[in-house]
């Protein structure tokens, strides 16, 4: 059965703010039952009908001349025409009735509207009209989404409704959401979604049991994350980290699932497809696990080819480099140039001093010392590749350096090699360098 069209209901617009005032309970005094009943009926009528809902929140119609100007600028498609302040006032008035019946009516009405929106998007020959998108925009500002009792149902249905939209409709809604005030975007949307995800991930067993729902809500968070990025960072990226996901997720399984997933982003099968949800510590563990898997793969391949060639496989299981302490950087760069095919193997370092090989097994300590000394030499101002910026306490590339560009590339490989081998480097670079390494748009502010 097709859902009702947005304009199928009569445009009867009850004054929700006046009704809320009559139904408000203050100082433990009960509001009249008839006032509460009138309020709940009005909430149900307005918030289950896209037509009534939108009509009640539209801004006054502009003049023909102004409308023509907006059309010439291409703005009419980008402006939803809704009165954001009126939406906030109505939601605030409803909640300030402090009446559970009214709040339940609002939650249930929004769930009904979202269910109908999802059906409309899935019904053949009924395109997701702009009215449905406007209704979604209004419901997405409902503060009840942050409520522990009623919020999960609304968040779940909002995720389903948005997922059912066509790509152009999703893009239009994203543009509108991206124009929300920063705090409202965080408080009304991102944090309630995160709260629901945390509830689904209260333990490892809960994550397994709730996985289908978790992935659907993760897709909604991914949608909001894209909006945030497109809008230039409405809120801090830390808002998208989730402590419970990072703590209870089986990171190895999530990574393996993401490797098996085709390049297309949808549908989400692994939380690694939404990496922003992980804390830096969890991402570090994922990177270490990925590096270990790649090392084992490289060792297996090398051993197999060595056996085919009639050679002992033990000689090909490491990237074994020997460096002179007095010529550390040059030797390290030469080893990278000479053996690029071995970079993904486990690293083993041997030092030479005055032409004599130093004794000792590399069980991690020698490798860490190698990268520590290497970093110190790389960042030494007298070497000329980097300069120190005291105002930010970071290092930056020396524009006056006479070193060829290839040497900077080799330095990048060395830093990547350290991370690959689980060595934390004391290298402080500006944030813009991380954006450059990710090929993200650069912001030099």
UniProtKB/TrEMBL annotation:
Keyword GTP-binding listed: no
PROSITE patterns: HECT
Sequence ranges assigned to domain HECT in this UniProt record: 339-445
GO biological process, one term: protein polyubiquitination
Enzyme kind, highest EC tier: transferase
InterPro entries cross-referenced by the UniProt entry: E3A/B/C-like, HECT_dom, Hect_E3_ubiquitin_ligase
GO MF annotations in UniProt: ubiquitin protein ligase activity
Name of the protein: HECT-type E3 ubiquitin transferase
The protein's Enzyme Commission number: 2.3.2.26
Entry annotated with the keyword Lipoprotein: no
Domain of life: Eukaryota
Organism: Tetraselmis chuii
The entry's keywords: Transferase, Ubl conjugation pathway
Catalytic activity: S-ubiquitinyl-[E2 ubiquitin-conjugating enzyme]-L-cysteine + [acceptor protein]-L-lysine = [E2 ubiquitin-conjugating enzyme]-L-cysteine + N(6)-ubiquitinyl-[acceptor protein]-L-lysine
């Amino acid at each position: 059965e097709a859902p009702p069209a947005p304009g199928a209901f009569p445009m009867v617009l009850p004054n929700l703010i006046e009704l809320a005032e009559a139904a408000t309970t203050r100082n433990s005094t009960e509001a009249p039952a008839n006032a509460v009943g009138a309020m709940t009926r009005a909430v149900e009528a307005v918030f289950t009908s896209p037509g009534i809902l939108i009509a009640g929140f539209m801004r006054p119609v502009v003049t023909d001349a102004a409308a023509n100007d907006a059309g010439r600028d291409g703005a009419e498609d980008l402006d939803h025409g809704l009165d954001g302040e009126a939406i906030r006032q109505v939601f605030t008035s409803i909640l300030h009735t402090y009446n559970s019946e009214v709040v339940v009516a609002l939650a249930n009405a929004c769930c009904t509207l979202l269910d109908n929106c999802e059906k409309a998007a899935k019904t053949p020959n009924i395109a997701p009209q702009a009215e449905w998108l406007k209704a979604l925009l209004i419901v997405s500002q409902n503060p009840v989404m942050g409520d522990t009792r009623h919020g999960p149902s609304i968040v779940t249905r909002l995720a389903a409704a948005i997922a059912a939209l066509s790509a152009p409709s999703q893009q239009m809604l994203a543009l509108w959401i991206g124009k929300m005030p920063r705090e409202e975007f965080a408080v009304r949307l991102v944090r309630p979604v995160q709260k629901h995800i945390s509830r689904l991930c209260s333990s490892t067993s809960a994550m397994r049991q709730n996985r289908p729902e978790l992935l659907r809500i993760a897709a909604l968070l991914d949608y909001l994350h894209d909006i945030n990025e497109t809008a230039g960072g409405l809120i801090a990226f830390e808002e998208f980290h989730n402590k419970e996901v990072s703590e209870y997720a089986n990171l190895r399984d999530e990574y393996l699932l993401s490797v098996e997933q085709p390049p297309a982003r949808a549908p989400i099968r692994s939380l690694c497809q939404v990496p922003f949800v992980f804390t830096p510590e969890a991402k570090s563990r994922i990177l270490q696990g990925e590096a270990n898997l790649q090392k084992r793969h490289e060792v297996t391949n090398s051993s197999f080819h060595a056996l085919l060639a009639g050679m002992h496989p033990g000689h090909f299981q490491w990237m074994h480099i020997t460096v002179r302490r007095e010529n550390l950087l040059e030797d390290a760069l030469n080893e990278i140039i000479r053996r690029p095919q071995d970079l993904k193997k486990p690293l083993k370092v041997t030092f030479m001093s005055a032409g004599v090989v130093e004794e000792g097994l590399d069980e991690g300590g020698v490798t860490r010392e190698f990268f520590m000394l290497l970093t110190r030499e790389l960042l030494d101002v007298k070497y000329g590749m980097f300069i120190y910026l005291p105002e930010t306490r970071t290092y930056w590339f020396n524009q006056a350096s006479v070193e060829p560009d290839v040497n900077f590339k080799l330095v990048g490989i060395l830093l990547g090699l350290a991370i690959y081998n689980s060595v934390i480097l004391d290298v402080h670079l500006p944030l813009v360098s991380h954006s450059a390494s990710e090929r993200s748009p650069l912001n030099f502010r």
